[in-house]
Amino acid sequence: MSASRTTVPALVKQLKSGLDSPICLTWELTYACNLECVHCLSSSGQRDPNELSTAEAKAVIDELHDMQVFYINVGGGEPLVRRDFFELLEYAISRNVGVKFSTNGYLLDEAKAARLASMDNVDIQLSLDGADAGTNDPIRGEGSYAAVRHAMNNLNSAGFTGYKISVVVTNQNVGQLDAFEQLANDNGAELRLTRLRPSGRGADVYNDLRLTQAQQVDLYNWLITRPHILTGDSFFHLSALGEPLPGLNLCGAGRVVCLIDPVGDIYACPFVIHDNFLAGNVRDEGGFDQVWKHSDLFTDLRQPENPGACASCNSYDACGGGCMATKFFTGIPLEGPDPECVFGKADEALANVAASDIPVMTQDHSKPNRVKVTLGRRS
Amino acid sequence: MTLSSQVGLRPEPFGALAYHFDTRRLVFLKSPGLVALVESLSQFASADEAIAAADAAHTPSSYQSALASLEESGVVCVR
Amino acid sequence: MDPTTNEPTSNEDTAEPVADELLVEEISIDGMCGVY
Q: H or E stretch including B35?
C-alpha cells in the first residue's frame, strides 16, 4: 500500500493538545522590506532597531536543533535584506534544521541562485499574487511581477528545481488558477495557494479582496481535484463543503507551529501578530523552549476548544470553526463561525460588529509615508 | 533494512514523527510498537525477523504494510 | 460494527491484536495551518 495524503482523524486530537516541539515554524528575520504589499500580514517596511543579532539568531537555531524542529519557513519583510542571511541559512542546515524561505525575488540574482542551487535542504518560495503584472502589481507594487519572473529565470538557469510559487488568493486572481498552474508547470515549480486574512495591513483591504461565497466554492472544487497543489492547510474552513482537503485540517497555531518575529517575539502564528497572541520572547529566561512548552497563551490554546455557536453544526468536525486570526481581526467571537463560513453562519455576528469591536493594531512596521487604504471597516 | 540516514525520527506520545530531509516528506508513525520495530531493524538480518520479534499489539501484516509504506516514503531502506 | 453508531466495536474483550490497521500516515510538511 502506498502512503497517501489523508487526514489523520485519530491523531488530530493529539495534535490539538500540542506537541513538545513544533513540527515546523515561521521565522520572520526582519521587518525591513523593499516592497509595501497592500495586504502584508506582518505590516513590514521598516527594520525594527531591536532585531535579533546574528549571535542571538544562531542561539535560536541551536534551540530548534535541540527540540528537533524539522524545518523553518523564513520570511519577513524580505529576508534577503539581512546581511547575515546566508550565514544563518548555512548554520541552520548544518544544525539539521531544514529551511524554506519566502522572498519577493528582487534580490535573487544569478549569483545567489547559483549559491542556493549548490546547497542541500534549502527550499524557496516566491510570492506572487497575479498571473500577470496587471493583476499582481496593484497588490505587490509596480515591477514586482517582473521581479519574480526574473528570479524564476535565475533559479531555472542555476538548476534549482521544485521551488514554490506562493499565491494569496483574492477576488482579483481567483480566475487565474489555471494560469498559475501553467506557470508552475512551465518552470518546474510547484504552485501554492494560501488564504487572504485580515491580518496586518490585510485588515485594510480584506473586504475589497476577499472571495465571495461562490468563489470559495469554485476554489474548493478546483483544489479537491488537485491534491498536489500546496495550500499550507490554509483553506481547512472549506473542508465543510465535502471531502476534506489534504492536510491536517486544523488550526496549528501554538499547537504544532508558531511564529518567531524579527525581535524574537513568539506569536501563535504569523497571522496574529498582536499583543493578544504574544506568548513570550526568545530572549526570556528559558528561551524558545520554555515559551513553547509553558507559556500561558500556548497552554490556553492547547485546551479543548469551545465550539460556541458552532456546536449545533454537523460540519464542525470538518472545519473546526475556521481560522482564529480571521475571526479575531474581524471583531467576532473566537468561539463561533469563521467570517467566511461556507454556510454563512457568521453573517449575523458580522452584521452586529461595532467599530469598537475591531482590534487596534498593536504592531506596525509599515513605512511612515504609506497611504493607508481605508476601504475596510477600520477607521 | 534500516532507518534511513536522511531521516529525523522524533519520539512522540503517540509513536513518532519521521521527516525525510531530502524529499521533505513527513510521516506519522502511529504506534510505539511500530517505532520500536523501526529502531530495531538494523539488528536483524531481515525485516521479517524483526517483525517476528515485534510488539504483539499489531498483526504481522499491519507491520508489513507499515514497513512497505515507510520504504516507499524513504524512511526505511534496504541496507 | 455497532449498528446504531456504525463504529467498530471495542476489542477490549479479547487479547488478540486488532485486525490490520493503518500504522503509518503521511501528511505534507506543508499541510499544517499557521506557517506561510
A: helix B32-40
Strand, coil or helix: A326: helix
Question: What is the spatial distance between Cα A82 and Cα B12, in angstroms, rounded to a whole number?
Answer: 35
Counting every residue written for chain C, the total comes to 36
CA distance A177 to A216: 13
Q: How many CB atoms lie within 10 A of CB B12?
A: 19
Three-class SS state of A322: coil
Backbone angles phi, psi at A5, to 5 degrees: -80, 105
Segment-wise mean pLDDT, segments of 10 residues, chain A, 379 residues: 40 86 98 97 97 98 98 97 98 97 98 97 97 98 98 98 97 98 98 98 97 98 98 97 94 97 98 98 98 98 92 93 97 95 95 94 90 47
Instruction: Determine the Cα–Cα distance for residues C24 and A8; give it in Å rounded to an integer.
Output: 10
What are the residues facing A191 on neighbouring strands?
A165
Question: ipTM value of the model?
Answer: 0.92
CB contact under 8 A, A21 and B10: yes
Q: Among B5, B6, B9, B17, which would you mutate to test the A interface (most chain A Cβ atoms within 10 Å of its Cβ)?
A: B17
**Single pTM value for the model:** 0.92
Contact criterion met (CB below 8 Å) for A273 and A199: yes
Task: Tell how strand A98-103 and strand A278-281 pair up.
Answer: unpaired
User: A71 vs chain B: nearest CA distance in angstroms?
Assistant: 9
Contact between B77 and B1 (Cβ < 8 Å): yes
Q: How many whole angstroms separate alpha carbon B73 and alpha carbon C24? A: 10
CB A254 within 8 A of CB A279: yes
Closest chain C CA to residue A165: C36
